[in-house]
Amino acid sequence: MAVQPSVGNQGQAVARLYIGGEWRESPERALTRDPFHKTPVTELHVASGADVEDAVRAAVAAKPVMAGMPAHKRAQILRRAAEELMRRRGEVARSITAENGKPAALAQREVGRAAETLEFAADEAKRLAGEVIPMDSSSRGENKLGFTLRVPVGIVGAITPFNSPLNLMAHKVGPALAGGNTVVLKPAPQTPWCSVYLVEALEAAGLPPGAINVVHGGPDVGEAIVTHPGVNLVTFTGGIRAGARIRNIAGMKKVLLELGGNAGNIVCADANLDRAAREMAANAFGYSGQSCIAVQRIYVERPVYEAFLEKLLQYTSRLRVGDPWLPETDIGPMISEEAAERVEAWIKEAEQQGARILCGGKRDGALLEPTVLVDVRPEMKVVCEEVFGPVVSVVAVDSLEEAIAAVNDSQYGLQAGIFTASLGKALQAVRSLEVGGVVVNGTSNFRLEQMPYGGVKLSGIGKEGPRYAVEEMTVERMVIIDLAP
Q1: Helix, strand, or coil here: 322?
Q2: Which range is the signal sequence, renumbered to this chain (predicted)?
């Protein structure tokens, strides 16, 4: 595989712990590396159990401050933080590319999305409202006034992944703060650097000490947060096994889990094939397929199967793989060589089981070529599991009903896409697909920050999107006032 030339070492940063408004060092250190150049990027200060305890203690101390802060001030802080991220957009984007290999243009876009997420969260801080309950609908409710309030849940434990490190932090931290909560955040150990920028932006915006605390580390640090009795809610994005573990050990805490998928997409015989193929290629392989809603399975009605496949291969062949620092690069490395080796092994296993590789399949370090598979079967890992890599399987079907059944034949149910010129077919898919979201004439890999985002089955519990996350992160409190003289 041809690899585009290097642009050189991007330097090294330090990600310390942030507890009670102060940066703290740790004797235990780890090092993140650029997945393409393999050069050191960030020195990570790993939290101990005592550090987690201190972080929760700081969050507890800040609880009354955040709960008592007027909504307009919470909104102002979030809006100023969004402005600060955009002011530093270039350097923040460079930190993302350095740590997770996301192509530079996509990293720039992520910073903009994270800022927008904080802005939407700021809007929601001002919209938190209850409702009036008609108490006199019952004879026992005469002379009583009833209404509800939204109050903070308390301390939010947030655990975020590497693939969209800044924006997914914003999707958890922004709504938590908008709702008047405090936060203990554990970023992915592969991508800690951008958490420093987020904290600095919130700090510059006037967030009180202790309102956000950051502890770095692996699963043991995450489990310490999840099991801590002072934490009231846990929000996590990651894999099924980790999500199941969190649910099992969280006790009576509320948990919000976004656990990924193996997104199915449908191409009907009446679809715009060129558009469908172009968007499928972009959204199956962009950021090396490391998105939980990336196109993974494509079901194509048989009359247009060959024509669609030809177009898909044409668009895939135009994608440029290589150094993520170069502006012309479409697809950079996966998060690590180990991750690429796993996906390569799945491709080879599928081939041994009868699948054919029409393009791609070759690996060079953490770079894996965009891979199109046909002649797959439902039980193959590349079909039934979450690949989380640049691999797509294309299957011919005889009807829309067969395609819908195939998409639904999955333990996941996050998002799906369908291309069709028929409103009737589109609505049939919308009503029948067992997923959290359906994109009509677009692929599964579409998300706006303000929309409700979350799945069914093993794809998770709860919804993201600032409006919906704020509701999840607040408690509805009933108030009854006796007006009798």
Answers
A1: coil
A2: none
pTM of structure = 0.95
Half-sphere exposure of 161 (CA within 13 A, CB side): 18
Q: Which domains, and CATH codes, for the chain?
A: 13-260+459-478 (3.40.605.10), 264-444 (3.40.309.10)
Distances (CA, A) of 43 to 12, 32, 38, 89, 461: 7, 7, 14, 22, 34
Tens-place pLDDT, residues 226-259: 999 999 999 999 999 999 999 999 999 999 999 9
Rounded CA gap, 425 and 421, in Å? Answer: 8
**Residue 401 C-alpha from the chain's centroid:** 30
Which residue do the tokens 């802060």 mark? 69
Q: Are 209 and 20 in contact (CB under 8 A)?
A: yes
In sequence order, what are the residues at sequence separation of 6 or more whose Cβ sits closer than 8 angstroms to the Cβ of residue 480? 135, 144, 145, 146
Rounded CA separation 97/19 (Å) = 26
Q: How far apart are CA 247 and CA 238, in angstroms?
A: 13
pLDDT at residue number 5: 31
CB atoms within 10 A of CB 320: 13
Cα(84)–Cα(176) distance, rounded to whole angstroms? 19
Residue 424: predicted pLDDT: 98
CA distance 111 to 264: 28
Residue 137 phi, psi dihedral angles, 5° rounding: -65, -20
Among residues 116, 258, 344, 471, the one annotated as catalytic is: 258
The one catalytic residue in 116, 292, 386, 464 is 292
CA 283, chain centre distance (Å): 15
- Residue 12's pLDDT is 78
Q: What is the pLDDT of residue 485?
A: 83
Q: Which pLDDT score is estimated for 7?
A: 30
Q: Is 292 a catalytic residue?
A: yes
> Residue 4's pLDDT is what?
31
In the chain, which stretches have pLDDT less than 50?
Answer: 1-11
d(CA 398, CA 380): 21
Spell 413-444 as b/e; 16+ CB within 10 A means b. Answer: bbbbbbbbeeeebbebbeeebbbbbbbeebbb
- Report CA-CA distances (Å) from 243 to 61, 236, 258, 408: 29, 7, 8, 21
Beta-bridge mates of residue 477: 149
